[in-house]
Design a protein that fits this description.
The complex is a heterodimer of chains A (255) and B (324).
Chain A (H helix, E strand, L loop, with lengths): L1 H16 L5 H20 L5 H31 L2 H5 L5 H16 L1 H14 L8 H29 L2 H15 L14 H5 L2 H12 L8 H33 L6
Chain B lengths: L8 E12 L7 E12 L3 E5 L6 H8 L7 E6 L2 E2 L4 H4 L3 E5 L11 H11 L4 H14 L15 H12 L6 E5 L7 H16 L3 E6 L2 H7 L2 E6 L2 E6 L1 H10 L2 E4 L3 H9 L3 E6 L5 E5 L2 H13 L5 E4 L3 H19 L1
Parallel strand pairs in B: 3-8, 3-9, 6-7, 7-8
Antiparallel strand pairs in B: 1-2, 1-4, 4-5, 9-10, 11-13, 11-14, 12-13
Helix pairs in contact in B: 3-4
Classes of the chains: A mainly alpha (255), B alpha/beta (324).
Protein name (chain A): ABC transporter permease
Organism (chain A): Streptacidiphilus cavernicola
Pfam family, one (chain A): ABC2_membrane
Chain lengths: 255, 324
């Protein structure tokens, strides 16, 4: 708990001095405007929930990937990565502890997206199931922090975090049903997509904005958290192996 | 700092070897069978030129690098298998600018590192304030580290290394890049930390620094231990190799060359001549001779570290031949 608080506070302090970490707070309203424009021109107002949920999930994912990459890349540049690995702290836990702050910050995009909808398009989103929406967002943020731990393993191993941040995001977002529901994608993508927590999050958040009752909300929230936890556990295992590998190859601190 | 136990060694390595594989061509051997022993409470210097293998050895001891072969222990714990037990016992300071978060303050940096070493929030806060005071950073503790002088940053590095009150402190060229005043201040701090009974392993290429701070020194060159001596022994070795630098006309230099004590007269880059003599006692006699000949531009000098290495390597080679 102490690490979670200390690393979270530290990451918050870093975010305040690196304003570029908050770029998604600038980009998301623009993306929301684009999505809502598309919905308006499609003449299908029932798709508004898609235009509202997609930019939020993109921001949550993007900020988490940015920070998990920075924990590795920036620390490598600063010469602190070797010292962190030489410290008694569990590196995977540290990554998750640092990322959770930014995933929490990224939830501010919900307010931004709603503001764009109201002020830019004159549409007041109707939240028919506010409790499900809030719990779904919190579960998504927690699962994203877990996924970031897994991605950090990749960043440590490859030494090119930024390339992976940029190239991996869209396949995950697409397979995660963020832009369009998973059931609209080819059938062969469904089993893969259901392993990505984002597909459960996207469906649940869209359902929370619709008037129809949300079926199995508790179960779906548990699945989101479970997949996030699984990603965190696999991330811890993989990160342990990767750190062992870079200790063998002598590439821990190489930039 | 936890109490010391028994007469267990603080650091020991046996035939430690580290190779770096190259994608193309031959790999690089950074350490080639290094064995050292450092007692608890000892300040031990690792002396060697750049590329000698000091940093590689430091990285292995700090558990961020695995040896290719050989073994090592820190306070009785195996480096390869018990690294988790070693990490809380170590304080690590790598030299140079890197190693802290420059956009954060010294206080923020130290509190973060305290958490990484398992200190509770309250303990981390109190330890941070102690260290800021002890290392003379309290007044600027709230300023971003990027506004600090190099000397202040290095003191912060040292404070960071001390955050968990370690039993063994690994310092890799901590005074590198510091001006003489800042280097002296840092050496005083290191001396104080060593005085508290902690084991310090100091990698340096500065012989004076090693002599000032260390109880014993291991000299490393090309990944091999060349010698392990007390600094005084090294100093004696140096004084035996004292030379005379003189600016004189060729005729006088011929006379000097003919003196029985003189082993060599070589031309230096600046046009002066460097006179090597057979023994320390002979230096005075040769000096008296050149001064009596009316030469005013004359001084004695010690060989540099690289020359000492060469002599020690040569001495080692001779010993090997005799042993065979």
């Amino acid at each position: 708990m102490s690490l979670l608080a200390a690393a979270g506070r530290f990451q918050g302090q870093l975010v305040l001095t690196h304003r570029d970490y908050l770029i998604d707070l600038v980009r998301t309203p623009l993306l929301a405007a684009v999505f809502l424009l598309l919905v308006r021109h499609s003449g299908q107002p029932q798709l508004i929930a898609y235009g509202l949920v997609a930019p939020v999930l993109m921001a949550v994912w993007s900020m988490a990937m940015l920070i998990s990459g920075e924990v590795v890349d920036s620390d490598r540049q600063l010469g602190t990565l070797e010292l962190v690995i030489a410290a008694p702290v569990d590196f995977a836990r540290l990554v998750v502890s640092r990322v959770w702050v930014t995933t929490t910050i990224s939830l501010l995009t919900v307010v931004e997206v709603f503001a764009v909808s109201v002020l830019g398009f004159g549409i007041t989103p109707e939240v028919d199931h506010p409790v499900v929406l809030v719990l779904g967002l919190l579960a998504t943020a927690a699962a994203t922090a877990g996924a970031a731990g897994l991605m950090a393993a990749l960043f440590v191993a490859t030494r090119t975090a930024r390339t992976f941040q940029n190239t991996l995001s869209y396949p995950f977002l697409l397979l995660g049903g963020v832009f369009v529901p998973l059931d609209r994608l080819p059938a062969w993508t469904h089993p893969l997509g259901r392993l990505i927590y984002l597909s459960w999050s996207a469906d649940l958040l869209r359902a929370a904005l619709a008037p129809a009752p949300v079926a199995g909300a508790a179960w779906r929230i548990c699945v989101i958290l479970g997949l996030g936890l699984l990603a965190a556990l696999v991330g811890r295992l993989v990160l342990g192996r990767v750190v062992r590998m870079v200790r063998e190859t002598g590439t821990v601190g190489l930039r | 700092m936890p109490a010391l136990s028994g007469n267990q060694l603080a650091v020991e390595t046996h035939d430690l070897r580290r190779e770096y594989r190259a994608r193309r061509g031959a790999g690089v051997t950074a350490l080639d069978g290094v064995s050292i022993e450092v007692a608890q409470g000892e300040v031990h210097g690792l002396l060697g030129p750049n590329g000698a293998g000091k940093t590689t050895l430091m990285k292995i001891l700090s558990t961020v690098l695995l040896p290719t072969a050989g073994s090592g222990r820190v306070l009785g714990h195996d480096l390869a298998t018990e690294y988790r037990r070693i990490r809380p016992l170590l304080g690590i300071v790598f030299g140079g600018e890197r190693g802290v978060y420059p956009r954060l303050t010294a206080r923020q940096n130290l509190r973060y590192w305290a958490a990484l070493y398992g200190l509770s929030t309250a303990a981390g806060r109190s330890r941070t304030e102690e260290l800021l005071d002890e290392f003379g950073l309290a007044e600027r503790a709230g300023d971003r580290v990027e506004t600090y002088s190099v000397g202040m940053r290095q003191r912060l590095h040292l404070a960071r290394g001390m955050v968990a009150d370690p039993r063994v402190l690994l310092l890799d060229e901590p005074t590198n890049g510091l001006d003489p005043l800042a280097a002296r201040q840092l050496r005083e701090l290191i001396g104080r930390l060593a005085g508290e009974g902690r084991t310090v392993l100091l990698a340096t290429h500065d012989l004076d620094e090693a002599e000032l701070l260390c109880d014993r020194v291991t000299m490393i060159n090309n990944g091999r231990v060349v010698a392990a001596e007390a600094p005084k022994t090294l100093a004696r070795l140096l004084s035996r190799q004292e030379r005379i630098r003189v600016r004189a006309d060729p005729a006088l230099l011929d006379q000097v060359r003919a003196l029985p004590e003189v082993t060599e007269v070589a031309a230096a880059d600046d046009g002066a001549a460097v006179v090597s003599v057979g023994s320390q006692e002979a230096v005075g006699r040769v000096l008296a001779f050149v001064v009596a000949a009316g030469v005013t531009e004359v001084r004695t000098e010690l060989p540099n570290l690289e020359e000492v290495y060469l002599r020690l390597v040569h001495r080692n080679d001779e010993r090997s031949v005799v042993a065979r």
